[in-house]
Amino acid sequence: MEVRPGRWFALAVIVALLVALMAGALAGYTSAYLLLRNQPTPPPLIEVTVTEEELSTIGVIQQVGPAVVTITSLGQAQAVLGSGVIIDERGYIVTNEHVVGDYRTFKVTLASGEERQATLIGTDYPFTDLALIKIEGSALPTAKLADSDNLVLGQKVIAIGSPLGELPNSVTAGIISGLHRRWEVDGIYYEDLIQTDAAINPGNSGGALANSLGEVIGINTMIIRTTGIGAPIQGIGFAIPSNTVRDIATQLIEEGKVSRPFLGIRHRDLEEGALVIAVVPDTPASRAGLEAEDIILKMGDYVIDDENPLLNVLMKFEPGETVILTISRGGEEMALELALVQRP
Question: CATH top-level class for 144-255?
Answer without folding.
Answer: mainly beta
